[in-house]
Write a structure and sequence with these properties.
Layout: H1 9-18, E1 24-28, H2 35-49, E2 53-58, H3 61-80, E3 87-89, E4 94-96, E5 102-107, H4 111-118, E6 124-127, H5 135-142, E7 154-159, H6 168-173, E8 190-194, H7 206-213, H8 217-223, H9 242-245, E9 257-262, E10 268-276, E11 279-288, H10 293-304, E12 309-312, H11 328-334, H12 347-359, E13 363-365, H13 370-378, H14 397-409, E14 413-414, E15 419-420
Parallel strand pairs: 1-7, 1-8, 2-5, 2-6, 6-7, 9-12, 11-13
Antiparallel strand pairs: 3-4, 4-5, 9-10, 10-11, 14-15
Helix pairs in contact: 1-2, 2-3, 12-14, 13-14
Length: about 425
């Protein structure tokens, strides 16, 4: 007996939103709520309307192949489109429809595969389990959302909601740019719908809901109730709170500038600080893409003049990010800046120092430092390690620059006495 497909009320709402005027649409919520199934169904309907190309992406191709090509789409074709003659291509991993449309399955984890994806244009791009995909990879893939097929181009996204630090939360829930957390002019183009397993009771075992109800609270919020969480587990700068630490600052004429700097070609970063009242005030930031220490020195001189103290990454004693053949530290000295003797603290000490100052509200950041604020909110540990996650290549550098100044000005340890300056014995 052929099974008849019938949408739940929530799936009706999702289908209506996916067909709306919004270009970017996120379906988020708990586990087994039919988010992915509804999006894949919408992709097939779009592909059937006119000859066109569409793609469903995950971070890792093997996951995309297993979950989408070998599971979701076969079930979808059988249940919702039983009379549709679909051909599989298991060499390049796409489906062909009778009208010539193609639905591709891809991953963003291998250069050769990404280049093949970027070599084509699409009418629909679906980012499946987008909580795992770096925002830089999303923006790269979206450059190929440009097929002129007669369909309105659409980008679909789904996920079990991560923490509010993830790029999906500011973009879809707050209408903010994920990199600056400033309002987007095109916020109306972004829409979302929350879908939970309780909205899909007709299609899942009731025991599954009982199992989700027994999960620890943070997992229950994510997989049963479909909520973005505030918890900071995994966040490196867990003590940072925008409402406590982001305050407009007027530069003090009575106190010198101290610059923290991280050497990196893309980006080169610096934080402009002042130290007084036993606190660290970040009054400005410099963030240069595809740059070098010569350019950073010139920009710094143009904005604030020479003569200030720079606390750089200590590896710059030997590091050469320019073609001049001299070290980054020497370039800064020749530019008129003072560099005291510095050594890089252990990474954990640097993180602990920044968090300790944040907890005491002794770090204040001006709102005109959006890159630093983004770092403090989004930099996290790689799962199962004490190393920073580096999937998002532009993250970590400017917060490292802050860490160099913080640990130089207010070190965890008084190395001469063996005392912890912040109140704890070594």
């Amino acid at each position: 007996m052929t099974q008849i497909f019938k949408k739940t009320d929530k799936q009706v709402d999702q289908a209506r939103l996916l067909a709306s005027a919004s270009k970017h649409i996120l379906s988020y919520g708990g586990s087994r709520s039919a988010k992915t199934f509804g999006i894949c169904r919408a992709m097939v309907i779009r592909a059937a309307k006119t000859r066109s190309r569409h793609i469903a992406l995950r971070l890792k191709f093997n996951h995309a192949k297993t979950s989408l090509f070998l599971d979701t789409f076969p079930k979808l074709f059988s249940l919702c489109f039983p009379g549709l003659e679909v051909r599989e291509n298991r060499s390049d991993w796409y489906y062909s429809l009778p009208n010539g449309s193609e639905i591709w399955i891809g991953g963003l984890d291998e250069k050769e595969r990404v280049e093949k994806i970027l070599g084509k244009e699409y009418s629909t791009i679906f980012f499946n389990e987008c909580s795992q995909i770096p925002y830089s990879s999303v923006t790269m893939a979206l450059t190929r959302l440009a097929e002129r097929s007669g369909l309105k181009t659409k980008a679909y996204y789904d996920c079990n909601p991560p923490t509010k630090r993830h790029w999906t939360y500011p973009l879809f829930i707050r209408g903010l740019d994920p990199q600056t957390w400033e309002p987007r002019d095109d916020a109306d183009n972004y829409a979302s719908i929350r879908m939970n397993p309780t909205d899909n009771l007709d299609n899942i075992d009731p025991d599954y809901i009982q199992m989700l109800e027994q999960l620890p609270e943070k997992d229950r919020l994510r997989f049963l109730q479909g909520e973005f969480t505030d918890e900071s587990e995994g966040s490196i700068y867990h003590a940072f709170r925008r409402e406590d630490h982001v305050i407009s600052i007027t530069r003090s004429p009575r106190h010198p500038i101290v610059v923290g700097m991280d050497f990196n070609v893309n980006p080169m970063t610096a934080v402009i600080c002042q130290l007084y009242d036993d606190s660290l005030y970040v009054i400005d930031e410099i963030y240069l893409e595809n740059s070098n220490t010569h350019e950073m020195t010139q920009v710094l001189k143009q904005k604030y003049g020479p003569g200030w103290t720079v606390i750089p990454d200590a590896t710059g004693k030997a590091l050469k990010t320019s073609a001049a053949g001299i070290s980054d530290h020497e370039i800064l000295k020749q530019g008129g800046y003072q560099i005291p003797f510095v050594r890089n603290p252990f990474r954990a000490d640097r993180y602990n120092c920044v968090n300790g100052l944040l907890e005491k509200k002794r770090i204040i950041v001006d709102p005109k430092c959006p890159k630093l604020i983004r770092d403090l909110e989004q930099v996290s540990y790689k799962e199962g390690t004490n190393l920073p996650e580096t999937k998002e290549k532009h993250l970590t550098h400017i917060s490292d620059a802050l860490g160099y100044v913080a640990h130089w000005a207010y070190p965890l340890y008084d190395y001469s006495s063996g005392d912890d300056v912040m109140g704890v014995k070594r």
